[in-house]
Amino acid sequence: MPAEAVGSAVPHTTITSDLAVVLWRRKWVALAAFVAVLLGVGLVTASLPKVYETTAYMLVNPDRQGNNDFEQTQVSQALVTTYAQLLESQNLADEVSDRLGPSYTGNPKNAISVEAVPDSQLLKITGEADSPETAQKLTNTYSEVFQERIRELRQSDAANGRASVAEEATLPDEPVRPKPKLYLAVGAVLAALAAVAVALLTQRIDQRLHISDDMTDVLGLPIIGRIPHGSGGALERMLAGEPAGDREGRAAAEAFRLLLANLTFANMGQRPRNIAIVSSDEREGKSTTALSLGRAAGELEIQTLLVEADLRRPSLSAKAGGWVGGNVGFSSLLVHRSSLGEATWTLPGASVDLLPAGPLPPNPAALLGSQALREFDEDVKERYALVVYDTPPLSVSADASLVAAITDGVVLVVDAKRTRRRPATQAVDQLRRAHANILGVVVNRVDSGQYGSGYYTADPELIVDQAAEPRSTAPPS
User: Fold this and answer.
1) Distance (Å, whole) CA 427 – CA 416
2) Checking DSSP bridges between strand 221-228 and strand 52-62, what pairing results, if any?
3) Hey, CA dihedral for 359, 274, 447, 462, is it positive or negative?
4) How far apart are CA 87 and CA 60, in angstroms?
């Protein structure tokens, strides 16, 4: 096969596949559009008036015979053409109308059609009406009146031929219009086109990310983690150091263990020393992901530091059940007003330290863009095997990009239920402009059907943090 043929086949296959995906995703909208259009065609078809049609034939014979067959044919066809024009005259229609009486209210001329039958001496008169009886009466009356008019013209030598009824119009059995089967077939085609158009339009209007179970990438990035929907309560218990013995808790714990393993694969086989957890917008599960990932690392005895790098609206400390609004924290270390030991506290039941945001500075971007952030990062990497930064949303400011630029990798968290395509795409572009190493995407709140088979209910070794220490409510001494 030529190279040009191969190159042209791939886009066609891709377009067909994408269209199939859109139609399946929007199947209910497409089905509603299909049914609505088909139902509309059916209603219009049912409301159209019925039209009945019948035909009569008249035989035309010239008085003068031709010298040969050719000349005879020419004379006959000329006479047929002349009589056809006479049949369509308004004078003849008025006479027919008088003959029909007041019960017929229309113009007979508009209800009949006349045509010459090829290679014959016959005239075909077709009449139509809203009932079989009226159509038959109209057509036969036309034939009779025309036959009488030709007879009168011959008597006055105004016509040189005869016209007689060769076949009278019969009573039609069924209407010729509307044609329900034909109209519904055409309607089905139009309904299918409308369904495709509505599906594509809905897809274009709906800016949500749609991530199916069989997708391996989104926004051009690999999916390295899927967090089941409905596991929020289990995560809260886990983060408080309580047992996660139920199915949801085990599924959530296993999802973050898998995410931790995938970070190594995504980073060319080496676990990153520091990562930034980012999202395009608020309430997409970014802080919960950072906290849960840190606890998953702590289970493996990986010395981990969670840094609340959101210096605008921090939430990591509150989710961890710790001390909120302290006088020391991440911001204090960046301005060299505190030591790391004074600012951090250990999560209950885990080898994980948490560094709260500390006092909120008036200009977080300026503080995060200073050399102090790189010095801080180099210092904590000497003390911890893994540093996880929880950043503000990328749509809020440049803070997340500044933190992402100094890390070994970035994890983008998206919400399968509410993340919009455009902000997410802009977030990826923003990270790439900052030359950040995007390791992949974590899809939060995915449909939990794949976790509902009981797979996570059999192995007691998957239970996280059985030692359930009480939640800390004050900073460590």
Assistant:
1) 16
2) unpaired
3) negative
4) 12
Rounded CA gap, 139 and 132, in Å? 11
CB 355 within 8 A of CB 341: no
Query: Tell me: the pLDDT tens digits for 187-217?
Result: 999 999 999 999 888 878 877 777 777 788 8
Rounded to whole angstroms, how far apart are CA atoms 145 and 147?
5
Which contacts of 60-66 are long-range, i.e. CB under 8 A and separated by 24 or more positions?
60/121, 60/122, 60/123, 60/161, 60/162, 60/163, 61/121, 61/161, 61/162, 61/163, 61/164, 62/160, 62/161, 63/154, 63/160, 63/161, 63/162, 64/160
pTM, 2 dp:
0.61
Can you tell me the distance from the alpha carbon of 287 to that of 282, in angstroms, rounded to the nearest whole number?
A: 10
Helix (H, G, I), strand (E, B) or coil at 39: helix
Identity of residue 460: P
Q: Return the exposure string of 96-113: e unless at least 16 CB atoms fall within 10 Å of the residue's CB, then b.
A: bbebbeeebeeebbebbe
Q: Which residues are within 8 A (CB) of 109 and not within 5 positions of it... i.e. 6 or more apart? A: 88, 90, 93
Please check whether residue 372 is in contact with residue 334, taking contact to mean a CB–CB distance below 8 angstroms: yes
Tokens of 220: 């051009």
**What is the C-alpha separation between 335 and 362, in angstroms, rounded?**
13
Residue with tokens 């996570």: 456
305 Cβ contact list (under 8 Å, min separation 6): 344, 352, 353, 354, 355, 380, 383, 384, 386, 387, 388
The pLDDT value recorded for residue 11 is 52
Predicted confidence (pLDDT) per residue in 75-101, tens digit? 778 888 888 888 888 988 899 999 888
Helix ranges (H only) for 156-272 are 180-205, 232-239, 247-266
User: What are the tens digits of pLDDT across the range 241-261?
Assistant: 555 555 666 777 888 889 999
User: Are the CB atoms for 448 and 222 separated by under 8 Å?
Assistant: no
Query: 386: which strand partners?
Result: 304
Residues ≥6 apart with Cβ < 8 Å to 396? 282, 312
Q: Which of 276, 137, 289 is nearest to 228 (CA)?
A: 289
Q: How many residues in the chain?
A: 477
